[in-house]
Design brief:
The complex is a heterodimer. Chain A is an alpha/beta fold. Chain A is built from 11 helices and 13 strands. Chain A folds into 2 domains: 201 residues, P-loop containing nucleotide triphosphate hydrolases (Rossmann fold, 3-Layer(aba) Sandwich), CATH 3.40.50; 76 residues, no CATH class. In chain A, strand 8 and strand 9 form a beta hairpin. The radius of gyration of chain A is 21 Å and the shape is globular. By secondary structure, chain B is mainly alpha-helical. Helix content of chain B is 81%, strand content 0%. In chain B, helix 5 runs antiparallel to helix 7 and helix 7 crosses helix 10. The N terminus of chain B is likely disordered. The interface between A and B is medium-sized, with 32 and 31 residues.
Chain lengths: 291, 310
């Protein structure tokens, strides 16, 4: 069974179309990165998956309808939004008590184990903790829940590099296994790059790219072209061209790698560069269509 | 043979064990109520603080108690009773009034607060339904606060009585008359009756309304709770020159004759007052009020489902 399955998922706020009928299928055991510019519909998609907003179209998460069965779904789904959602008045010990009391899959000993590795005292109030510590706390709580789907919406927003690195490290080493699924949205694409198994670009409520990281490696190639061969490279219809250190860097979709190797250094593009290339083409295509 | 019976015995146990492993006993409602008490400590601190301040004042005024008592004892029984019982009623009224103010502030903040600080995203990420949350939040002003008020009033009155007795005994006056006149047990029983009938059952629609407005309004829940009923009163007055809606609200607010048989000269918690619980339970006003409360709460459940953080 797919972890998430959506068909024609659509959401409008007044006249603004946040999700424009997207189709989506996320299998179990994947780590999906949802990348897009501000206002692309990432958070709206996540909110629909979490049962926080009503939507049009079909959506099943772990076989349930999130809007009508949110409370049942949340036994198997965890969610970390940007750091500000833990109630500020709460004490750490109260958060542990409360979760033990309401969540059938919460393992208190495990959460205390994770917290033991941090400097967060049980009697501290959340408002007294630094941003990084609040995230550590939330992560400790969430990792102690034996959930099947973990949704992370900009989880490292506003954190310094140390905490950000730690966040994904502990997520991968202490939490992730092949039976869980993780969806993450972030603007810091570099830090999730090595973590993801799947990648999805979303723009203006539509999915503009959806592929696994293996496919990405075989499909896209970036060539730092030797100055003499720029014209020859351009003839192979690159999807994007940029300048780096005075040399042309061209990106190709579905091109013959051996052929490209004769033009310069070939490598798999980073997500950030791919994002710029794909989004740039999107804007171009829209402009072309408008004309 | 043995092994066979073992397997047949073992088989039905298996799913039970599995079910127990999947869902250990969680009590979402109980913990939702507790978390409200963690967050809103004024629910118990405010009545306690008022009780403490009142007791402090009472302690100071106890200097004059022997003189007052001698004056009271010289009065006729009717006035004697009133004079002696008065401070106890004032204590009860002050603490109950505080509880009502706390309840109003609690209701207006209940659903708006969690959206304002975005913690609603945390609460909604847990397996607790909107219905459980709304019922837990409604329990605070309608049940918990009222019963806690009862406990605080009873303890305060008891301490007042002990204190008075000690002072009187110290100046050679027997406190016996005071104990007979104040008759703490029946005062407490009346208080409980008053709280359950008026403050819980009769006033429940007000709390339901305020909770619903809090779940609905983006800001100034207070105004949204007050202005529409005022507008209805005003429009009714202008259009039909009648005051039915205002009269109904006033009747509901005052407690109404169904809830408590109140004669103008008496406190609603006067012992020996003629109680009519049967009449109260049979009054349509009670049941219509409870039905309206249920509708308001159902609407609050629905709104909490739709509302996003602001």
């Amino acid at each position: 069974m797919a972890c998430i399955e959506a068909r024609g998922l659509r959401k409008t706020f007044g006249t603004t179309i946040a999700l424009d009928g997207i189709d989506l299928r996320v299998e179990e055991g994947r780590i999906l990165g949802l990348i897009g510019p501000n206002g692309a519909g990432k958070t709206t998609a996540l909110n629909a998956i979490l049962g926080l907003i009503p939507y049009q179209g079909e959506l099943r998460v772990l076989g349930r309808d999130p809007w009508t069965e949110r409370d049942l779904l949340m036994r198997d789904v965890c969610f970390i939004a940007d750091v500000a959602v833990l109630p500020r008045w709460m004490k750490v010990s109260q958060a542990l008590d409360y979760l033990t009391g309401v969540h059938p899959r919460f393992d208190r000993a495990k959460a205390e184990g994770f917290l033991g590795k941090t400097s967060i005292g049980h009697e501290r109030k959340i408002r007294e903790l630094s941003k990084g510590m609040v995230t550590q706390l939330h992560l400790a709580l969430v990792m102690a829940i034996d959930a099947r789907l973990l949704v992370l919406d900009e989880p490292t927003l506003g954190l310094d590099i140390l905490y950000r690195k730690q966040f994904y490290d502990s997520l991968l080493t202490d939490y992730f296994d092949r039976s869980r699924t993780i969806i993450v949205t972030t603007h810091q694409v570099e830090e999730v790059e090595h973590v993801l198994t799947d990648l999805m670009f979303i723009d203006r409520g539509r999915i503009v790219l959806n592929c696994s990281m293996e496919d990405l490696e075989s499909r896209y190639a970036e060539v730092t072209v030797n100055p003499a061969q720029v014209a020859a490279a351009r003839a192979l219809s690159p999807m994007h061209e940029r300048q780096a250190l005075g040399r042309s860097v061209l990106m190709f979709d579905h091109a013959d790698r051996q052929k490209l190797a004769t033009l310069g250094d070939v490598r798999t593009p980073g997500i950030a560069d791919l994002f710029v290339a794909v989004m740039g083409n999107q804007t171009g295509a829209t402009k072309g269509a408008a004309r | 043979m043995n092994t066979q019976s073992d397997t047949t015995h073992g088989a039905p146990l298996e799913p039970q064990r599995a079910a127990a492993a999947v869902a250990p006993a969680t009590r979402p409602y109980y913990w939702s109520v507790r978390r409200e008490l963690w967050e809103n400590r004024s629910i118990y601190l405010a009545p306690l603080a008022v009780a403490a301040v009142f007791l402090g004042g009472f302690l100071i005024s106890a200097v004059h108690l022997p003189r007052r008592m001698r004056a009271d004892l010289a009065m006729d029984p009717q006035h004697q009773h009133r004079a002696m019982v008065m401070p106890y009623h004032i204590a009860a009224a002050l603490i109950m009034g505080t509880a009502i103010i706390v309840a109003i502030f609690y209701c207006f903040d209940s659903f708006q607060g969690e959206r304002r600080d975005r913690s609603i995203l945390f609460w909604k990420s847990l397996p607790v339904s909107d219905r459980t949350t709304v019922l837990a939040k409604a329990t605070i002003p309608i049940v918990i606060l009222q019963l806690f008020t009862f406990a605080v009033v009873v303890v305060t009155q008891f301490l007042m009585l002990l204190l008075s007795s000690a002072v009187l005994a110290g100046s050679g006056i027997s406190p016996a008359t005071l104990w007979t006149q104040v008759s703490l047990f029946s005062v407490s029983a009346m208080l409980l009756y008053h709280l359950v009938t008026v403050h819980i059952l009769w006033h429940a629609p007000f709390y339901g309304w305020m909770l619903m407005v809090s779940a609905w309004a983006r800001r100034v829940a207070f105004l949204w709770a007050i202005l529409p009923p005022l507008a209805v009163c005003f429009i009714e007055k202008v259009a039909f020159n009648t005051n039915y809606f205002a009269a109904m609200l006033g009747h509901r607010l005052a407690g109404g004759p169904e809830a408590i048989p109140m004669t103008p000269d008496q406190f609603p918690m006067e012992p020996g007052m003629h109680l009519t619980p049967g009449h109260f339970l049979a009054s349509p006003g009670l049941w219509i009020g409870l039905l309206v409360t249920a509708l308001f709460l159902a609407a609050a459940v629905r709104m909490r489902r739709y509302r996003e953080p602001m």
